[in-house]
Amino acid sequence: MATTGETQPAKHQEVGHKSLLQSDALYQYILETSVYPREPESMKELREVTAKHPNLMTTSADEGQFLNLLLKLINAKNTMEIGVYTGYSLLSTALALPEDGKILALDINRENYEIGLPIIEKAGVAHKIDFREGPALPLLDEMIKDEKFHGSFDFIFVDADKDNYLNYHKRLIDLVKIGGVIGYDNTLWNGSLVAPPDAPLRKYVRYYRDFVLELNKALAADSRVEICQLPVGDGITLCRQTQPAKHQEVGHKSLLQSDALYQYILETSVYPREPQSMKELREVTAKHPWNLMTTSADEGQFLNLLLKLINAKNTMEIGYSLLSTALALPEDGKILALDINRENYEIGLPIIEKAGVAHKIDFREGPALPVLDQMVDDVKFHGSFDFIFVDADKDNYLNYHKRLIDLVKIGGVIGYDNTLWNGSLVAPPDAPLRKYVRYYRDFVLELNKALAIDPRVEICQLPKLNRQNTKKSATRVSFKAMHCISTFSKPANLMTTSADEGQFLNMLLKLINAKNTMEIGVYTGYSLLSTALALPEDGKILALDINRENYEIGLPIIEKAGVAHKIDFREGPALPLLDEMVNDVKFHGSFDFIFVDADKDNYLNYHKRLIDLVKIGGVIGYDNTLWNGSLVAPADAPLRKYVRYYRDFVLELNKALAVDMRVEICQLPPTEKLNPQNTRKSATRVSSKAMHSINTFLKPVNLMTTSADEGQFLNLLLKLINAKNTMEIGVYTGYSLLSTALALPEDGKILALDINRENYEIGLPIIEKAGVAHKIDFREGPALPLLDQMVDDVKFHGSFDFIFVDADKDNYLNYHKRLIDLVKIGGVIGYDNTLWNGSLVAPPDAPLRKYVRYYRDFVLELNKALAVDSRVEICQLPVGDGITLCRRVI
């Protein structure tokens, strides 16, 4: 009589023992080519011993490999495992940890653990394991009570009783360190989570399914963690502990009700400071038949500024904004680009060269192998590359590998794309494959076989589903699926970034010291150039776009600007590459800034991935999130077909962002008059929210406060630039003061100046209740005398990170003459009401109130002076009543 294991599925055998891939053959292929050849002898022995056990509850082989690699990548040392069984995943962990690494192993049954213990001891890692028999919850409760255990674990792996997963999470969140990882196994529960109600599931599968669903829902809404769910094994969800997100109210007030006001911003703030290369590329782009895919001048300026603020260096871009990125990269940033066709690249090259950034790009036309041979022969190139990605001629993959292994540094990564070749590797001999698929299949098989036995590298091949449910995988980091993205024909000039938005991005990037960035959706590269100009010389932009042809229109200008070397342009759909990056922990939290201006029907899909890739405190900017006012258009509004189609996707994104507790959001108003037939809108951090129209033209005294959206923006800006020592001139009841105080660190300081303490004391009880009053040094009286004293004392020179002015407009220019000495190089001065409720472009006979007309000339005078002040970079935003940010550069 056959054994139980031979005649019927063992308990738990249908859950957790293999991949969720639809093809068993493909899963077996991964095991045989990527996992088994590299599996340590001790792991193999324990796997085979465990397979003979009647209850097959072990971790799958590919998951064990993944965990081993992950632990090395995050340099884990102190870990915990709940649910040990025979110790397969425990052994995988122990082998990955350093010699003094530790694992607290908890399980209710020591008998199973002792099956694998002799193998663990033979492997020489038993000293790393502290095994405790018994239920885990009581021990976790003891640890919670002892503060020394809080934040003490680098990694925790849970593969135990699913009905307690949520109970475990409530305790483990305190024990894992900030930046540490909790991994929950079986979070896809063998696909049963999406099984229909009448599916013939085993009793225990149906019972535990609800608990797994409950866990997944809770993790998705937990603002304390970033999550990533991988289809490895039976599904594993990684939770990275982060700082708790704060709730913030979002408000909006836009002044741009006239084309004249928009033109005023362009002519006084944007165009006078627009780099010549950006202007030239903007004009060239405007002549292109697909000129609507470009970023507008002001948006390009915003990207440029943002990249400088965050000191971006290593970037990615899917799209056509290479020039903007190259301009933002530091002077010594480099991009080695190898391609057999230079013709497309040369469309934009003259402009890039003229911009003075072409020196950053090393483009080599022709086959790659001869260039690689030269580099291999020169020892200075050995180990000089951090990351190399290969998605080229598959029949040369092995030839590339033989050379690249010398060029990548120890600990660096080579990513080979298409290493499962769309599942064809396990297709039967008579499968109806296309000729080119069949031809290249043998070369991919050859590569996989070679990598599996190459002792110089560790490999990890991960599966990923595309829309057609075909599989592609990656080696270490590499897999890409093909997506078809349909785009509508759009009217001219609507896809570009406006000049003032470009200016804002440029300043923002500088303020947040961006260095490593990504852009999805490039077009001709206007916003990309703005970004590149803002980045330091070694900054990087990963640029992603489905069409290289448009990008190459601007490439010559980008090269001429000398920033093309900052740009890593990748042609093709973005989602597959993002999936590759999400599946590789090294990319998690690696980007300072990501800008998305691409297919709106994928915005939410992008967000689900980008949230793992941007660093804590980093920024994701979504463009067109007001979809030019169509979001509030009546149902029967005569919208163009593409406007109506994408509107629902934008609404969906906005709704999702509004409730996403992992991010703080701030949506900036559009930079020109709304017209549902047109499209333009950008956001800072993660931004989206419906626009509220607030008429403040006739502003009574009680409206002297900062608007809600402006307060939110200031709060976010202060966090991004890590401000600590600040000043505010004009306090009123303290609304903006409170916003600032909440953003500053505990030892942050605000010097608050106002002529009237009475108004300030209205808000003081609330400020005290918020626990931030100790950060404020309030001084009653006119500001100029105190500023003069500070200017005369050299210790105050360059001592302020941020200064906000919302006071007497007739002294704005006098304030500026003094504040320029007090703010530090790289610091910011913000002037409020610089659009003065639209009156700056009102006709001479407009019925303005007396005070509006009186102060208008002073605001005009300030704007004119700032536009020509070489000591600052400026950016004027239509937030509140207009705010101009001045970043001191000299």
From TrEMBL:
Pathway: Aromatic compound metabolism; phenylpropanoid biosynthesis. This is Caffeoyl-CoA O-methyltransferase. It catalyses: (E)-caffeoyl-CoA + S-adenosyl-L-methionine = (E)-feruloyl-CoA + S-adenosyl-L-homocysteine + H(+). Belongs to the class I-like SAM-binding methyltransferase superfamily. Cation-dependent O-methyltransferase family. Keywords: Lignin biosynthesis, Metal-binding, Methyltransferase, S-adenosyl-L-methionine, Transferase. GO terms for biological process: circadian rhythm; lignin biosynthetic process; methylation. Its EC number is 2.1.1.104. GO terms for molecular function: caffeoyl-CoA O-methyltransferase activity; metal ion binding. It comes from the Eukaryota.
